[in-house]
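ugh ok fine here u go
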Amino acid sequence: MREDIKLLQADSFQLNSVHLLPYFDVYLLAHRFKEHFLKPQFYKRVYRNQGWISPVVLINGEIAGVWSYKLARKAVEIEVELFGSVGARTRAQIKDRAAELADLFQCSLSFSFKG
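structure:
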């Protein structure tokens, strides 16, 4: 058991949880303080006018960007705008989550990073 704790605390262990949360996801609702998962300079990008809440890219429990999609004839077009830089592995994980959405819509994926 103690060995497990040491392993979990080791610097070489990297948990990288990546999710694409939809509009108005419950994870984003009913928080008085949001600094624990969203940097203040990006607040207006997520919590927009008139109570509109953007779909977000969640990395390790923190909001790392926003995303949008359009349904075309035979494809879903997903565009991701990150608030900062992430590694190639994380970018690949984001694209994997987008591919899962395309599977849900039963169509091909057109994917891009904005900016």
